[in-house]
Design a protein that fits this description.
This protein has 4 helices and 9 strands, in the order E-E-H-H-E-E-E-E-H-H-E-E-E. By secondary structure, it is an alpha+beta fold. The strands form 2 sheets. Strands 1, 2, 3, 4, 5 and 6 form a 6-stranded antiparallel beta sheet that branches. It has a 3-stranded antiparallel beta sheet with strand order 7-8-9, with helices on one face.
């Protein structure tokens, strides 16, 4: 077995935490999230992972009516492992949590981001439906930026601009009643196998 080196000291690292509707509804009143409310949520859920001394809220960004991103400084420790003569990070411990494999953490984060992005795509599609109900037809647009500008703020508030990887969406009209919405997915590249795609037919 290859030797493990435990880092001698805990240090603060930048960490993004996705706060979902279930958490917001359980811990925050109103439609927006404050720094204080975000810290309470992170300290209380999941129970015991973080305490007030382990997390410092840097900023809160409301990315949709249902979701927010909280950027924090979180105390973390890392295990380093020597592999083929090179040191690599093998495990991480965040706050009071147990050690977790880096690969497992990355896979879990990808699953969370995929689900988050799917929900954002459905939110965009729903706002298009509200536009069509009022105007009797879908809006004319050349790209997603133009579509988002048309929908916000009346049909989409706050505006949904980016997917969970902080990359812009793509959108196109397939015909008069059908729209295709796309995220580049985990590899952040449009047109690859891991694209996240939603096609909505509004004639039904």
């Amino acid at each position: 077995m290859m030797p493990l080196v435990y880092m001698a000291a805990m240090r603060f690292v930048s960490f993004l935490s996705l706060i979902f509707l279930a958490l917001l509804a359980g811990g925050c009143g109103g439609r927006t999230v404050t720094k204080g409310a975000a810290q309470k949520l992170l300290v209380s859920f999941p129970s015991g992972i973080l305490d007030k001394e382990s997390v410092k809220i840097l900023s809160v960004s409301q990315i949709s009516a249902r979701d927010a991103i909280v950027e924090t400084d979180v105390r973390a420790a890392f295990k380093l492992e020597r592999v083929r003569g090179e040191w690599v990070v093998s495990e991480v411990r965040i706050g009071n949590e147990e050690w977790a494999k880096i690969d497992d953490l990355a896979e879990a984060l990808t699953r969370v981001r995929v689900e988050q992005t799917r929900r954002l795509l459905h939110e965009i599609a729903d706002s298009l439906g509200r536009y069509r109900e009022l105007h009797g037809q879908l809006p004319v647009f050349h790209d997603y930026t133009g579509l988002s500008d048309t929908l916000s703020p009346r049909f989409q508030s706050p505006a949904v601009r980016l997917d969970a990887w902080r990359r812009p969406f793509a959108a196109s009209r397939l015909d008069e009643t059908t729209v295709r919405l796309i995220s580049g997915g985990p590899d952040r590249k449009m047109g690859s196998a891991d694209d996240i795609v939603l096609v909505r037919d509004y004639s039904r």
